[in-house]
Amino acid sequence: MSSHTDNVLGIDIGGSGIKGAPVDVVTGKLASERVRIPTPKKATPKNCAAVVAELVEHFAEEIGDNPVGVAIPGPVVHNVVKYMANLDSSWVGINADDLFTKKLGRKVELVNDADAAGLAEVRWGAAKGVPGLVVVTPLGTGIGSALLWNGELIPNTELGHIEIDGADAELKASSGAKSREKLSFKRWARRLTRYYQEIEKLLRPDLIVIGGGVSKEHQNFIPLIEVETPITVAKLFNRAGIIGSAANAMDAAAERA
User: If exposure means fewest CB atoms within 10 Å of the residue's CB, which of 33, 148, 162, 189 is most exposed?
Assistant: First the structure.
């Protein structure tokens, strides 16, 4: 890692937008205003890498020769994308780290977007300093999940796909389901209660953190969720993917050093 800067570029690739900003990896704060570029209509790895290259060029002076972290909406197992929900299906089976590294001419580390959010929240957010087992669940079109044990990430969990009442949980309890079915916060909270009761039964976590865009309205539904586990709202909101992907790149660079 470059010695003249603590800034690592974090990038969050979503179905509609690709957002990036330099992150001070000591404080976990954005070092500049984030930039958003629309996700290419055909969101192949090659086309998304071209957008990532634009963001790298935009922030080049601020990040030096540091690596780049990229969060994507799919599991990344030993650098290989196993499946993809909101981007082009051509992501599946590729070594995305290698593709992006070759395109950018610098080391790029990819990570699942929910795992990125979990890393950010445990380092600098709502889960900081919490011992034991923490489950971070970004609520969006689906339900993402990150599992953290004493501050360490257990990657690539898919707890949004556990079954509740005979259906995939994210089909019933995501904020996408709330919007699609025009559910009130009260009705939605009953479904979230069922979901988090299943999480409790399976894992007995010490803390549940709820993130995603809808978490801005947390006061309307979190108090209505009836579980024994303490539940809190994510502190980093829609910055978590950017911050966590930068943290993941920083960790990987430290391991290589």
Answer: 33
Q: In angstroms, rounded to a whole number, what is the distance separating the alpha carbons of residues 209 and 134? A: 7
Residue 107 belongs to what domain range? 7-112+239-256
Question: Is the separation of the CB atoms in 170 and 199 below 8 Å?
Answer: no
pLDDT per residue, tens digit, the chain (257 aa), is: 444 478 999 999 998 899 999 999 999 999 999 999 999 999 999 999 999 999 999 999 999 999 999 999 999 998 899 989 789 999 999 998 999 999 999 999 999 999 999 999 999 999 999 999 999 999 988 999 999 999 999 999 999 999 999 999 999 999 999 999 999 999 999 999 999 999 999 999 999 999 998 999 999 999 999 999 999 999 998 899 999 999 999 999 888 87
Same-domain status, 202 and 223: yes
174/96 same-domain check: no
DSSP label at residue 79: T
Asked if residue 119 belongs to a domain, the reply is: no
| Ramachandran angles phi, psi of 97, nearest 5° | -55, -45
24 token code pair:
């001070």
Do 108 and 78 share a domain, yes or no?
yes
Pairing of strands 163-164, 80-81: unpaired
